[in-house]
Design a protein that fits this description.
single chain; 376 residues; alpha+beta; Rossmann fold; OB fold (Dihydrolipoamide Acetyltransferase, E2P); 2 domains; 7-stranded antiparallel β-sheet; 6-stranded mixed β-sheet; 22% helix; 34% strand; nucleotide-binding; membrane
Length: 376
Amino acid sequence: MSDIQVDTLRKEFSSDGGPIVAVNDVSFTVEDGEFVCIVGPSGCGKTTLLRCIAGLERPTSGSITLAGEEVTDIPPQNRNLAFVFQDITLYPHMKVWENISYPLKLDGVDADTRYERAQEVADTIQIGELLDMYPGDLSGGQQQRVAIGRSIIRSPRAYLLDEPMSDLDAKLKKEMRVELQRIQQQVGGTMVYVTHDQEEAMTLSDRMIVMDDGEIQQFGSPQQVYHEPNNVFVAQFIGSPEINLLSATCRDDTGGTVTVDDTGWNIETGIASQGVPENVTFGFRPRHTNVEPVEDLDGLGGEVALVEAVGDENILYIDTEVGEIRAVVDIERTPIEEGDTVAVDVERSYLFDGATGTTVAHSTRRGDQPDDQVEA
């Protein structure tokens, strides 16, 4: 297996209105044996980036290195990379073992050896009993495993997967995520996985790349990306329900207290970092709140417009003076109904530069020691 190094990669496409920049001077390294997800909204450049690594798209500039070998100008068939496409592309007239072992057939390996290798791979991905069946007789999840098995059989340098589970239902997606992690641990391969689903990225990744508009917004572990977002975009894109964002003004340059614009709300952020700008965006995640019903509201809060039950939690949609905010509460511990007036206490805060959206500072959970407060 091998690491993958991408250096100042740029990919432009021609159009009547001028060049379209799909990937804009992107650089990163995927370590040997690492599972990295590239996540972002549609059109952010994540699939184009993956196709450049695979050799299916030629970069406009920059370089790609696999295990120390520059492969930027090497054709895809000579890079020894496995690519699993979004659409499950199996040959319907071939049995499962023939589909799995097809790359070996192209290499001239005899049928008996191909069958033995297909059996080994099928056992690894837990479909060993399906070798003599045809793709049309399989479920969607089984077909996806066959496609993954075909990529495993050649022992490639790395595995590239482009939204391979986008067509599966929610239950099957969760099952396949567990299977894919197990497979990756068994084969020990370097994997780069493209998805628009933040839940997939958070659960599968060792580290994750968050992209927007052709650029990397953040590259880090799921916990880093969630708890220490680089900017407003990352904070909004990662996390469900979506983070609450309010325009605010700092009363001093430490960010300890902010006043939400167009209100009289003075909110203690738990932040003590020098150099915080006057105009900020105050952010807090719905899960980092305490909510209490009140008779008279004096501060952050409002009337509960909607209660959405999700398992043992309720997501509250609260109408405030400055628009809707969201909070998550335990159904049994905090029984709140639509129409209730509630006060919202924020446990963990983020301050973003009001002009650029860049993270200025953030606090840890209320009650932690001051030394744990982090300046971004």
